[in-house]
Amino acid sequence: MTAINANITSYRATIILDLRNVTESVEDVFARLKKTLATIGASVTHEESLGQKNFVRITDRKNPTGVYVQIAFDGPPDAPAAFREKLRLDRTIKRILIQST
């Protein structure tokens, strides 16, 4: 194992999308997220759309559902923080959970 590969970690991001008032499709959002991950030095290994699901706790009665997607990626240890920061102001992202796998 080389020193470069020693710093690569596998992650899984579960993201809830808010696609109200947006003309973008889920595939377009996937493409944009993959491009964002590439800019921080991460590579996508798997992507999956989990579909639209009802929220367990509804915080907004006008929006009781969200589109759930999962992206598995490999990247440096600072990739989760950098990914969150890049998506912080994105209005299509309602929530994001990143786990080390």
Write the layout of secondary structure elements.
Blueprint (H helix, E strand, L loop, with lengths): L2 H4 L2 E9 L8 H14 L3 E12 L10 E11 L3 H9 L5 E8 L1
Written overview of the protein:
- The chain is of the alpha+beta class and 101 residues long.
- The chain has a single domain, classed as 2-Layer Sandwich (Alpha-Beta Plaits).
- The protein has three helices and four strands, in the order αβαββαβ.
- The chain has helices at residues 3-6, 26-39, 79-87; strands at 9-17, 43-54, 65-75, 93-100.
- Strands 2-3-1-4 form a four-stranded antiparallel β-sheet, with helices on one face.
- The chain is elongated.
- It starts with a helix and ends with a strand.
- The mean pLDDT is 90.
Task: For the structure shown, list the relevant keywords.
Alpha-Beta Plaits; 3 helices; single chain; 101 residues
Explain briefly what this protein structure is:
The protein has 101 residues and is an alpha+beta fold. The chain has 3 helices and 4 strands, in the order H-E-H-E-E-H-E.
- CATH level 3 topology: Alpha-Beta Plaits
What is the terminal separation in angstroms? 19 Å
Structural class: alpha+beta
Based on Cα principal axes, name the global outline: elongated
- Fraction of residues in helices? 25-40%
- Could you describe the largest sheet, including whether it forms a barrel? 4 strands, antiparallel
CATH architecture: 2-Layer Sandwich
Side by side, the strands of the main sheet go 2-3-1-4
Question: How do the helices and strands follow one another from N- to C-terminus?
Answer: HEHEEHE
Which CATH class? Alpha Beta
Strand content: 35-45%
Q: Can you tell me the residue ranges where pLDDT is under 50 for at least 5 consecutive residues?
A: none
Q: What is the total tally of β strands? A: 4
